[in-house]
Amino acid sequence: MKDYETKLKEKQDYGTGATRDAAKGKGRFDLIPDLALARLAGVYERGALNHGARNWEQGLPISRLIDSATRHLVQYKMSKYMPELDDEDHLAHSAWNILAIIHMEEMIKRGSLQKELDDLPRYERLQQKKECVELNSQDIIKIENELGPLSVDIHTDQRTVKIHHPASGHSVTKFRSPDQRHNYSCALKELKDILDHTEETRREEKKKKIEEYFEENAPVKPTDFDFGFGDEEEEKFVPHEKAARSVSLDRVAKRGSKHVCKGGRGCGRHAEKLSKK
Length: 277
Fold this sequence. Notes:
Number of helices: 8
Number of domains: 3
Largest sheet: 3 strands, antiparallel
Strand order of the largest sheet: 3-4-5
Strand content: 5-15%
Radius of gyration: 39 Å
Order of helices and strands: EEHHHHEEEHEEHHH
Low-confidence stretches: 220-264, 270-277
Number of strands: 7
């Protein structure tokens, strides 16, 4: 027999000497209406006769259950003026589908049913633009000095501010706030962010081009090389066609030491060997 741990909980005294654990937070099952449960039980009974007692517990797509629950609700409303639709207990059937949805959700969370049963569409929320924080006067002057000459068009009637940066060709227009100083501050900040990003991109592209150039024009490249003990017979260098001829020996030795030797014991001999060539 399994030994269960006795947990000390808040107790409720009924005035008769008998006590029980407090029911707070456990739900009030005694408040579920009996008449509604009786009608719902009829749906379960009829379903068990047609499909089997627990057939539905094997898993149903949530979208299918929502469709059925909604359809029964609509048919219940329509049956008030179209008596021919009052052929089923539509409210009880709708409740059955909603309870089934809850069951599917809980079983999916527990890993007892595949998550694909929750087949409702997921819509990504659009990212909201961050509200502009107005710059103080010192920051405005600092950015203006950094950006250099600017062309500013202010239209008071349209509540717009346009800042143009002639050197780069970039422009920013702000018109959200009736406060033109606020619009100017936001436009200036956005323009600086654009130019900073552009400059960073330009530097990255330049760095990439330099790396590609040195990769294509490397003076030497290692082929079979054992970094273990620096044995000269196992150290092989293959000149890059004419590239080795056009680069100074000091640069060749330096590049060989950095990219081939990596601080190994034979680095000194590599430079000496290259200089002899």
